[in-house]
Design goal:
The complex is a heterodimer of chains A (about 750) and B (about 325). Chain A has 18 helices and 30 strands. Chain A has about 750 residues and is of the alpha+beta class. Chain A folds into four domains: about 5-60 and about 450-585, Aldehyde oxidase/xanthine dehydrogenase, molybdopterin binding domain (Aldehyde Oxidoreductase, domain 4); about 60-150 and about 205-295, Aldehyde oxidase/xanthine dehydrogenase, molybdopterin binding domain (Aldehyde Oxidoreductase, domain 4, 2-Layer Sandwich), CATH 3.30.365.10; about 175-205 and about 300-400, Aldehyde Oxidoreductase, domain 4; about 410-440 and about 590-739, Aldehyde oxidase/xanthine dehydrogenase, molybdopterin binding domain (Aldehyde Oxidoreductase, domain 4). In chain A, helix 6 crosses helix 7, helix 13 (about 475-490) packs parallel to helix 14 (about 515-540) and helix 16 packs across helix 17 (about 705-715). The longest helix of chain A has 28 residues, at about 515-540. Chain B has about 325 residues and is an alpha+beta fold. Chain B has a domain at about 225-325: 2-Layer Sandwich (Enolase-like, domain 1). In chain B, a hairpin with a 2-residue loop joins strand 6 (about 175-180) and strand 7. In chain B, helix 5 packs antiparallel against helix 9, helix 11 packs antiparallel against helix 12 (about 285-295) and helix 12 runs antiparallel to helix 13. Chain B is globular, with a radius of gyration of 19 Å. Classes of the chains: A alpha+beta (about 750), B alpha+beta (about 325). The interface between A and B is medium-sized, with 35 and 33 residues.
Chain lengths: ~750, ~325
């Protein structure tokens, strides 16, 4: 029985131009991953291959890299939200014993500016023999500032008379408009129209590992250990900045402690680290502090959404109008999805703007724009359901065009006991502590591509797989082992895997929940085709076609006659002394994009203190074919926790009078801790025929909206302002009391 | 952190001479869980740090007929584990149980806890040269004052962060202070000081004095206590509002009430009006509510912290009802 083959079209680069070619690959059926029940690794739970290294400290992260003669870098940052540097003098700093070099604005005007637009902007840097001396040196750089007017509050910044963040443009950017149908006609059809304003705060990324690099020059060759979500993006930016070929820059990220969207490219701290190392003629390590993380490495922009929603009396949504703005800080966009979130509404108009303020710039953060949109839309859906006397689930099911999501809502509702355990009447409990239940949903894209890999099968049977992707904490290294081991019928530990290095084949940045869907098809395609090359050498010995051979359990045999068999090592020994080497790339047919997610939440509200406790979350998610259910569940858990953190605790607080962030730490910027974590139950909605789809982002989107709805169900207080802290809960409860 | 020298003290008597005339000269360190953070944030910039942990015999919990004496270097973990504390002084036991995290409680001492410096974000940040650091203004005024004081009239609006201090004050505890002229004992009510007395500090300790012991009188018969703490986050968080309550109730009538609020004023805040109201009154729900109203009668919230008044009121009501039940 010969393996069926199929033709796939892939894009290759030829003389710098993309060209489509057709190749033949084994046809493994719908979804690409074959009969899952026969698998040893794929779709089965596996502990991370590097788990022990991580928990024992053997894994070396960027901050752990030590090199002979290593210096420690620190960045001097603007002490004012808006100022012009008249003079900067490092004489005192250079005189400190242990200080090696200082770089000032004139050393690199592309990185440093004399125009300071937020407190925390990079203005100079030092490298010294110890981190302590480097910190002392920062305090010994004398800066003469001309302090200028500033604005840090997005509402104040919209005032035409507000201080201008940029001299060449106003604080309020060009509106982005999205529309469909005729909203006037739509609202005319509506039996009920509701209007409300929702506010989402700025959220910091808080990766466990701060941003940082170790840079070492040898002549005009640069090696960088980086905490990054994209080693190739770091390489490209540094090569460009220093005017050297990309071949001269090697970027290594063997282990990485999270990025959540804020670690792409070399970024200023990466360029500064390389600058210091070049000037010092010595390797430099520059890891940012937690305060610098909050001030200058990105954040989720705020969102203020004025929403108007119209529905007919039977619950059909007919018109939607939204005007929203938010602040991306000094640069970037605060836009959120430009169509009504999740639901089909024939008539809508959305107008959104970004408002510049003198605060650190935004960066993509886990599902950019989506949690904000989901919070307002899902709150509004509950408000509409109540106005119409409908069950919140019924109105969702009626207006949701996505069948999978409708099924997932039903699945979660059944599991949590929506009909049996939830009171349809808000605030129906007695006593001080009231409990309630709410639901919220998400959509996300994902999808894959942009990944190459190479595979070597050596005559002794050892197998090496290399791919320049990086494991940002999601378990990518483990999935490379799993896919390769499955393909060759070997054990995961038999595969020598190299990732996180620009010396390996290209892979794109880890963002947009695309890594698993990018890397796994590339590894699958590369190992599958490398194996075929091996089979071509073996097949004649059995008198069969290469496609008739199977590699499983450490053996190679004829599929239709397993007695015709040899061990993997016997097979590879046929290679003589020439290994199989195959360079492959991402193939279509093994992944997909577009997934829903649904969270059900139970909360308790203490009506005398305003404290909300999230007691339980039922998270229903869909990733097509799940590669590793264990690390997949970790992603869902992490997403839920981040969603609770955003809804309940986290908030970047700017002092409007002085322009400083007052909680640039992890005490006053409240990240949830272990005892705040609820029971999380994860329900899988599998669609294996779709192949691999990412999970990182959809897992965090629905939570805040579901919590807001649960709070309302518990105590009758509708909170439209995140995070849901006791002050807001108490004032909403007081408003309820007053009627 | 600024460079400093480090000295291991070997006796209580030696300490005053190792300390200086000013807080910038030298400070003492026990658990270090607060001091090191302050130094990293440049809120404290001492030239010398005097380690007290090298002094033998300052970690003890002793009980006799008159009450309990706790050595200044006793860790919060040891206080929490002590069965006499949990049995006879539940208000203290409960307060200590919600301080920080197990790891911090392993290092932090009871005396250090009541000597903690404010957590005010303006005080703790190098960006703000506030009143408490010798500057010209309290940035909470006109700033973001969500976590600031609702009692007292400035000029600084910090809140006292300790959970143990309200509990100890509710129990009528005293501290032993050792200085250049020897030792003296001060009741906690007289130990803490409002900003108008000394804007830079929160108590009467001079730069060359230390607390060596905390003594708690034995509670009278029929006296019961409890500690309530409201914090935004259950894992390691300071109180938005806390309440230490110790009440003597006989046949449903309150003979004596000791109610001390935390997180609401620059010092642990005794709710005197509520205490006076309750004395000699039979406790009913309505009277618990009246006591609660009395407790916050003098509250003067800032623009962002009015919610604390509501919480304080509700905690007093809850505790009075629970202790009379």
């Amino acid at each position: 029985m010969q393996q069926k083959m199929k033709t796939v079209t892939i894009t290759i680069q030829e003389d710098g131009e993309p060209r489509e070619i057709e190749i033949q690959v084994p046809d493994t059926g719908e979804g690409g991953w074959g009969d899952l029940s026969k698998n040893t690794y794929i779709n089965k739970p596996h502990t991370r291959v590097d788990a022990v290294d991580k928990v024992t400290g053997r894994a070396k992260y960027t901050a752990d890299i030590k090199l002979p003669g290593l210096l420690y870098g620190r960045i001097l940052r603007s002490a004012h939200p808006r100022a012009r540097i008249n003079r900067i003098d490092a004489t005192r700093a250079m005189a400190l014993p242990g200080v090696s070099v200082v770089v000032l604005p004139n050393d690199d005007p592309e990185v440093f500016s004399r125009e300071c637009r937020f407190a925390g902007q990079e203005i100079a840097a030092v490298a010294a023999t110890t981190p302590e001396v480097a910190e002392d040196a920062l305090h010994a750089i004398d800066v003469d500032y001309e302090v200028l007017p500033f604005v840090v509050d997005e509402d104040a910044a919209r005032d035409p008379d507000a201080a201008q963040v940029h001299s060449d443009r106003g604080n309020v950017g060009e509106p982005r408009v999205g529309e469909q149908g005729d909203i006037a006609a739509g609202f005319a059809q509506a039996d009920v129209t509701l209007e409300a304003t929702f506010r989402c705060q700025v959220q910091s990324h808080i990766a466990l590992e701060t941003h940082g690099n170790v840079c070492q020059w040898e002549g005009d060759k640069l090696t960088v250990w980086a905490s990054t979500q994209g080693v190739f993006s770091v390489r490209g930016e540094l090569a460009g900045h220093f005017g050297i070929p990309e071949t001269n820059v090697r970027v290594i990220t063997e282990f990485m402690g999270g990025g959540f969207g804020a670690k792409f490219g070399a970024r200023k701290e990466g360029v500064i680290c390389a600058l210091l190392a070049r000037k010092a003629g010595a390797p430099v390590k520059l890891m940012l502090t937690r305060k610098e993380e909050h001030l200058a490495t990105g954040n989720r922009p705020s969102a203020v959404q004025h929403v108007k929603l119209g529905a007919t009396s039977d619950g059909k949504l007919v018109a939607y109008e939204r005007s929203n703005y938010g602040t991306p800080g000094v640069a970037g966009s605060a836009n959120i999805p430009g169509a009504p979130y999740l639901y089909e509404i024939p008539n809508y108009r959305i107008e959104q703007t970004s408002v510049f303020t003198n605060a650190g710039p935004m960066a993509a953060q886990r599902a950019p724009g989506h949690p904000q949109a989901a919070f307002a839309m899902e709150s509004m859906m509950d408000e509409m359901a109540e106005a119409l006397g409908m069950d919140p689930i019924d109105i969702r099911q009626m207006n949701d065009p996505n069948e999978a999501r409708r099924n997932m809502v039903a699945m979660g509702a059944e599991h949590i006991g929506w009909k049996t355990r939830r009171s349809a009447t808000p605030n129906s409990g007695t006593g001080r502590i009231k409990t309630g239940m709410g639901v919220g949903s998400a959509r996300w894209g994902g999808g894959g591509g942009r990944t190459q890999a190479e595979c070597t099968i050596n005559p002794d049977g050892s197998v090496q797989v290399k791919c320049g992707t990086q494991d940002i904490g999601t378990g990518t290294l483990t999935l490379v082992h799993m896919v390769a081991a499955e393909e060759f019928g070997l054990k995961m530990e038999d595969i020598d895997v190299g990732i996180g290095d620009t010396n390996y084949p290209y892979s794109g940045g880890s963002g947009g929940s695309t890594t698993a869907a990018s890397v796994s098809p590339a590894i699958k395609g590369t190992t599958m085709l490398a194996k075929l090359e091996l089979f071509k050498k073996i097949a004649p010995r059995f008198g069969v076609e290469p496609g008739e051979l199977v590699a499983s359990d450490g053996n190679v045999f004829v599929g239709s006659d397993p007695s015709k068999s040899m061990t993997w090592q016997q097979a590879t020994a046929q290679l003589g002394d020439e290994p199989i080497f195959f360079h492959g790339q991402w193939l279509p047919g093994y992944s997909d994009s577009g997934v829903p997610g649904v969270h059900f939440v139970e909360v308790s509200v203490d009506t005398e203190t305003g404290l909300v406790k999230v007691d339980r979350v039922v998270a229903v998610h869909n990733s097509g074919m799940i590669l590793n259910p264990l690390t997949w569940a970790s992603q869902v858990n992490g997403g839920v926790l981040m969603g609770i953190g955003y809804g309940m605790y986290e908030n970047r607080i700017m002092d409007p009078a002085t322009g400083y962030m007052v909680n640039a730490n992890l005490e006053d910027y409240k990240l949830m801790g272990s005892t705040d974590i609820p029971e999380i139950e994860i329900l899988r909605y599998d669609e294996p025929e779709r192949g691999v789809i990412g999970i990182g982002e959809p897992a965090t989107i629905p939570t805040p909206g579901a919590i807001a709805n649960a709070i309302y169900n518990a105590c009758g207080a509708r909170i439209r302002d995140m995070p849901f802290t006791p002050d807001k809960v108490l004032s909403a409860l007081a408003a309820v009391k007053e009627g | 952190m600024q460079n400093f020298s480090y000295v291991n003290a070997t006796s209580i008597e030696q300490v005053p001479s190792l300390l200086g005339r000013s807080w910038d000269d030298a400070v003492v360190m026990a658990g270090g869980t607060d001091l090191v953070g302050e130094m990293k944030d440049y809120a404290a910039v001492p030239k010398r740090v005097v380690n007290l942990k090298s002094i033998e015999g300052l970690d003890y919990i002793r009980q006799d007929d008159t009450g309990m004496r706790i050595g200044a270097l006793t860790t919060l973990t040891d206080v929490l584990a002590d069965s006499a504390v949990s049995q006879d002084y539940p208000v203290l036991h409960q307060a200590v149980s919600v301080i920080a995290s197990p790891q911090i409680r392993n290092m932090a001492t009871l005396a250090g806890n009541i000597l903690q410096r404010p957590r005010c974000w303006y005080y703790r940040s190098e960006d703000f040269p506030c009143l408490k650091k010798g500057g010209a203004r309290c940035y909470a005024v006109g700033g973001v004052n969500t976590y600031h004081a609702i009692f007292g009239s400035g000029p600084s609006y910090i809140v006292h962060p300790s959970d143990a201090a309200p509990a100890l004050m509710a129990l009528g505890a005293t501290v032993n202070i050792h200085g250049p002229r020897g030792a003296n004992e001060v009741v906690l009510d007289d130990f803490f000081t409002m900003p108008e007395m000394n804007i830079r500090r929160e108590n009467i300790l001079r730069p060359n004095e230390i607390v060596t012991e905390i003594s708690i009188p034995k509670p009278e018969a029929n006296s019961r206590g409890m500690f309530l703490k409201v914090r935004e986050r259950e894992s390691i968080d300071f109180a938005l509002v806390s309440l230490a309550a110790q009440m003597t109730v006989v046949n449903g009538t309150c003979e004596r009430a000791s109610l001390v609020l935390g997180g609401v004023a620059p010092i642990p805040w005794r709710a005197v009006e509520a205490e006076v109201y309750l004395r000699g009154r039979r406790i009913t729900e309505a009277r618990a509510e009246s006591a609660a109203e009395a407790a916050v009668e003098d509250a003067a919230p800032m623009p962002h912290n009015g919610y604390k008044v509501e919480i304080a009121k509700n905690l007093v009501k809850q505790a009075v009802q629970a202790l009379a039940a």
